[in-house]
């Protein structure tokens, strides 16, 4: 008995094998048994994944690396892929390493020798530097190659390949002229390869803060495109404290005492640490007598105003000391202040310098014996191997040492000892902070404060800076809301904080034991005086950095085998976790995701790299209930993934480890675009390269959209007589130059009609093509520059046709027919398989059945095979109306394929793409014969 079964979409992705009997699940009808190298389109179909484009080699590729995004704006000029390696950092922008300035190759150029020697007067390179050569006339075999400098002299150097093998140029074409060498921009870092996986970053404009438990926090700053700095981020005010403070009173001075301190304020409102209070024992007592006191000081560089603080007046001047509390009395724009008995505000006191991350800093100096003979002007110094300590002693009227105030703890003190001038007989006990374990693991910015957390010594503590003053962790003697804060998460398990993630309604704080939402009280911001931490989930998070997708947060649970999403519930006004991996849990059992990134456009895909080198995709569109996992493979292992928005495009970069030419090598690659106008633009190979497509600097105006002799006019002189035979691709069309008319006009035979034409125009007038949007390419019979695939059998896609496989030899392959649009790389196979057939009308699961036909609806597809299983596949018909010699166009229609299948228990079908061609399956209808007997009767 026949049964027609339809599968409308595949928006559940690849389901776990343990769900094969769960035909009752809503998602069952939208799932697949196998989805390999297909990704789920959020609109329902499955498409072959894009291929990978080779970018460049990796320094010290036998050691770990790490990708980090740098994005000041979506503009390509402000976007970089940061590539961290063992003690170095490099930058990728728009699909290539960022290079330093040109170094001209000068006569005698490049020798034909083993090893080749490059002459470049005053090049300034060092042995081991990586350089890229380009623009060479004659010895073009070196153009575009990444090489290493060896045996350098002042004006020349030898070159090796990225693996240290000498470049033998004896068989190359002789150098004729020109060329430049550009060093790959490299910044030295303190990070060894083994620690890169735990680097955490947060970017604010052109600065990236980098944290790791084993390193002082660092600030990476982009000064310009080719100038970057990396420096330790040490808490400090940007301003120095005022100096040379002088007190002068008017009226009738008496024996009253008072003290003043001054701080500097810059244009952003940042306040310096206070000057040491200046004391006077003989001033007019403004609380009882008529007069005023003028305070003056030296100007501070960068200061726009100053805050002035004062003690209470002491009737007996000798009683005033540096231990008296200071309160705010006013602000001034100049370097003097007139005090006319202003009432001091002791709720606003001078800032107390604090560095919560100092190693072996001075935290306390306890006076155990007061001694004698000390003065109120005595000073304190610290010995014991460290630096940075400042402080002052508090002395009473009798010359006894009462205490020592610390204004800067300094760091690095191993055997500290305090020395106080003028007196004698005192003894002190100096206490230091821990010598190690003070470096934070994570960093974020929330409510205009920089927040660090997860030090080894205080794993559950967060330290937030003062608002809009990221390097200032100062507090006050009388705490105020704008002070820096320090909060400790209250949890039964001492589990280090792993993640800080700013959300709409608070700061998410996560560890291996749980996650909390830190927020202010009653809708206010978090302050030093008030904050609250609500637990979100009792299940902890793994080390994988959570991913934000729209308003949701995705993360992997501790152990790495469960993917969850935190979704904000509008009714409860709270975050609630949801499991996102249950239906595809077979992809995660014993496999942990190490890195992932989200490419919103064009397919709303999360790309996730597993620890075993596999790549997963996850289509996530919550409002459409699309949650679909798929798996992907390549001839190698994927070690990292990052998405960078470059202009309007979301570019997926990958670190791939491949076994090529007898060794394991690591390459930076990126996913090619899956958006194309015609079949010849489709990229379906890995580690691939494309024949360069030159873009002349001129606007192109075709006279017609079709024809055998059509004038193409350029706005600038870009044509020469030798261009005859070259191929122009513009406006969606393709044309061959058949006649050179002038430097601005050529006559072309249009081989593929232009599609960029004036709409609703009977003549189909072509639109002008902007400079940079059209190409002019010479057809070639050989392609070089494939050294990274040496010895590999590669797939060749030329002018929209799949040609015979070729083996890369000395970095090149030969073709049997000239072509102008060529993509070459490693093949991969895309496989799909449906789940066992079920029916809404009756129970067929326990009966024998076979698929006798399938109606497949496809989109932009060519070369797809379908069948009962992977060993019995039938290629779908492709060619329709193309002229002889033209590439077969992509199809978007429905085709019925008859299948020779034997009776079995599943009634499933397979589809597969073996060629370097795109394929998209939107859905299918199965024609299934269902037997009368169940499988037990066989």
Strand content: over 45%
- Extract low-pLDDT stretches: none
Largest sheet: 6 strands, antiparallel
Q: Termini distance?
A: 17 Å
Q: Tell me which CATH architecture of the domain at 2-50 and 830-937 applies here.
A: Sandwich
Averaged pLDDT, please?
A: 93
Class of the domain at 2-50 and 830-937, according to the CATH hierarchy? Mainly Beta
Which bin fits the share of residues in helices? under 10%
Describe this entry's structure for a reader.
- With 938 residues, the protein is mainly β.
- Among the domains are: 157 residues, Jelly Rolls, CATH 2.60.120; 105 residues, no CATH class; 71 residues, no CATH class; 102 residues, no CATH class; 56 residues; 74 residues, Thrombin, subunit H, CATH 2.40.10.
- The strands form 19 sheets. Strands 1, 4, 5, 69, 72 and 74 form a six-stranded antiparallel sheet that branches. Strands 2-3-68-73-70-71 form a six-stranded mixed sheet, with no helix packed on it.
- The model has no long low-confidence stretch (mean pLDDT 93).
In short:
This protein is mainly beta. The protein is built from no helices and 74 strands.
List the helices and strands and how they pair.
Blueprint: E1 2-7, E2 13-14, E3 31-36, E4 38-40, E5 46-48, E6 52-57, E7 66-71, E8 79-85, E9 88-93, E10 96-97, E11 103-104, E12 117-119, E13 130-134, E14 146-150, E15 156-160, E16 180-183, E17 186-188, E18 200-204, E19 207-212, E20 215-224, E21 227-232, E22 246-249, E23 256-265, E24 278-283, E25 293-296, E26 305-310, E27 327-332, E28 336-339, E29 351-352, E30 362-369, E31 380-383, E32 387-395, E33 401-411, E34 417-420, E35 427-432, E36 442-446, E37 449-453, E38 461-464, E39 475-476, E40 485-488, E41 497-503, E42 506-511, E43 515-519, E44 532-537, E45 547-549, E46 552-556, E47 563-569, E48 574-579, E49 593-599, E50 605-610, E51 615-621, E52 626-632, E53 637-646, E54 649-660, E55 663-671, E56 686-690, E57 700-702, E58 710-714, E59 727-730, E60 733-740, E61 745-752, E62 775-777, E63 780-783, E64 793-798, E65 801-807, E66 813-819, E67 822-826, E68 830-834, E69 847-858, E70 864-869, E71 872-875, E72 894-898, E73 910-913, E74 920-934
Parallel strand pairs: 2-3
Antiparallel strand pairs: 1-74, 3-68, 4-5, 5-74, 6-55, 7-8, 8-9, 9-10, 9-17, 11-16, 12-15, 13-14, 13-16, 14-15, 18-19, 19-20, 20-21, 22-25, 23-24, 23-26, 25-28, 26-27, 29-39, 30-35, 31-34, 32-33, 36-37, 37-38, 38-40, 41-42, 42-43, 43-44, 45-46, 46-47, 47-48, 49-50, 50-51, 51-52, 53-54, 54-55, ...
């Amino acid at each position: 008995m026949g049964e027609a079964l339809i599968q409308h979409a595949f928006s559940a992705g690849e389901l776990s094998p343990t769900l094969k009997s769960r035909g009752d699940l809503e998602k069952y009808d939208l799932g697949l048994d196998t989805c390999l190298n297909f990704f789920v389109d959020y609109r329902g179909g499955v498409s072959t994944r894009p291929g990978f484009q080779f970018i460049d080699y990796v320094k010290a590729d036998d050691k770990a690396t790490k990708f980090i995004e740098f994005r000041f704006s979506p503009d390509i000029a402000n976007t970089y892929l940061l590539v961290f390696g063992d003690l170095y950092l490099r930058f990728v922008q728009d699909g290539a390493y960022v290079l330093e300035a040109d170094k001209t190759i000068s006569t005698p150029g490049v020798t034909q020798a083993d090893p080749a020697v490059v002459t470049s007067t005053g090049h300034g390179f060092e042995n081991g530097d990586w350089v890229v050569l380009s623009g060479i006339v004659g010895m073009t075999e070196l153009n575009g190659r990444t090489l290493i400098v060896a045996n350098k002299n002042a004006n020349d150097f030898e070159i090796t390949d990225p693996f240290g093998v000498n470049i033998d140029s004896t068989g190359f074409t002789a150098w004729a002229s020109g060329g430049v060498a550009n060093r790959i921009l490299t910044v030295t870092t303190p990070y060894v390869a083994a620690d890169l996986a735990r680097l955490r970053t947060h970017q604010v404009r052109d600065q990236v803060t980098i944290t790791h438990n084993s390193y002082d926090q660092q600030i990476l700053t982009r000064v310009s495109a080719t100038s970057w700095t990396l420096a330790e981020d040490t808490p400090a005010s940007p301003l120095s404290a005022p100096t040379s403070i002088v007190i002068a009173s008017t009226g009738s001075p008496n024996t009253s005492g008072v003290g003043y301190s001054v701080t500097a304020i810059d244009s952003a409102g940042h306040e310096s640490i206070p000057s040491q209070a200046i004391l006077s024992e003989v001033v007019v007592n403004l609380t009882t007598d008529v007069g005023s006191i003028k305070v003056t000081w030296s100007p501070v560089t960068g200061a726009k105003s100053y805050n002035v603080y004062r003690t209470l007046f002491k009737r007996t001047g000798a009683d005033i000391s540096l231990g008296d509390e200071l309160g705010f009395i006013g602000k001034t724009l100049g370097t003097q202040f007139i005090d006319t008995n202003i009432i001091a505000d002791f709720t606003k006191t001078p800032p107390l310098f604090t560095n919560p991350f100092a190693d072996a800093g001075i935290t306390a100096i306890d006076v155990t014996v007061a001694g004698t003979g000390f003065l109120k002007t005595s000073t304190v110094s610290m010995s014991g191997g460290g630096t940075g300590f400042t402080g002052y002693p508090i002395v009473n009227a009798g010359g006894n040492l009462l205490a020592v105030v610390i204004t800067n703890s300094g760091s690095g003190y191993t055997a500290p000892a305090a020395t106080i001038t003028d007196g004698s007989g005192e003894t002190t006990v100096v206490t230091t902070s821990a010598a190690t374990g003070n470096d934070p693991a994570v960093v974020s910015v929330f409510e205009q404060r920089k927040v660090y957390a997860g030090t080894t010594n205080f794993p559950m503590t967060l330290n937030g800076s003062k608002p809009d003053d990221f390097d200032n962790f100062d507090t006050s003697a009388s705490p105020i809301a704008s002070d820096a804060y320090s909060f400790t998460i209250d949890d039964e398990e001492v589990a280090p904080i792993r993640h800080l993630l700013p959300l709409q309604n608070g700061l998410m704080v996560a560890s291996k034991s749980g996650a909390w939402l830190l927020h202010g009280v009653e809708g206010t911001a978090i302050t030093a005086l008030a904050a609250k931490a609500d637990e979100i989930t009792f299940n902890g998070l793994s080390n994988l950095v959570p991913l934000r997708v729209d308003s949701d947060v995705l993360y992997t649970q501790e152990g790495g085998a469960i993917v969850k999403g935190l979704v904000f519930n509008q009714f409860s006004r709270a975050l609630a976790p949801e499991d996102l991996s249950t239906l595809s849990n077979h992809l995660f059992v014993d496999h942990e995701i190490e890195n992932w990134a989200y490419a919103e456009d064009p397919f709303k895909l999360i790309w996730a790299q597993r620890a075993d080198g596999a790549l997963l995709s996850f289509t996530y569109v919550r409002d459409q209930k699309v949650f679909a996992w798929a798996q992907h493979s390549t001839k190698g292992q994927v070690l990292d993934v990052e998405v960078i928005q470059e202009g309007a495009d979301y570019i997926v970069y990958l670190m791939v480890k491949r076994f090529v030419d007898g060794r394991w090598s690591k390459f930076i690659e990126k996913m090619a675009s899956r958006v194309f106008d015609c079949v010849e633009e489709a990229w379906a190979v890995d580690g691939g390269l494309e024949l360069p497509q030159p873009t002349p600097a001129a606007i192109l105006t075709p006279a017609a959209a079709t024809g055998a002799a059509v004038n193409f006019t350029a706005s600038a002189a870009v044509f020469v007589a030798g261009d005859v035979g070259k191929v122009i691709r513009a406006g969606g069309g393709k044309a061959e130059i058949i006649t050179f008319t002038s430097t601005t006009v050529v006559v072309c035979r249009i081989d593929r009609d232009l599609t960029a034409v004036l709409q609703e125009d009977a003549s189909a007038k072509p639109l002008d093509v902007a400079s940079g949007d059209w190409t002019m390419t010479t057809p070639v019979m050989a392609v070089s520059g494939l050294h990274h695939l040496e010895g590999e059998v590669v797939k060749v896609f030329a002018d929209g046709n799949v040609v015979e496989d070729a083996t890369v030899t000395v970095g090149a392959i030969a073709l049997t027919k000239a072509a102008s649009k060529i993509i070459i790389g490693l093949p991969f196979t895309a496989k799909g398989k449906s789940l066992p057939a079920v029916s809404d009308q009756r129970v067929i699961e326990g009966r024998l059945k076979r698929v006798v036909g399938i109606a497949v609806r496809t989109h932009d597809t060519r070369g797809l095979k379908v069948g009962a299983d992977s060993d019995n596949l039938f290629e779908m018909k492709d060619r329709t109306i193309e002229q002889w010699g033209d590439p077969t166009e992509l199809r978007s229609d429905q085709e019925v394929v008859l299948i020779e299948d034997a009776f079995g228990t599943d009634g499933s079908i397979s589809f597969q793409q073996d060629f370097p061609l795109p394929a998209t399956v939107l859905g299918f209808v199965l024609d299934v014969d269902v037997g009368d007997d169940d499988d037990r009767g066989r």
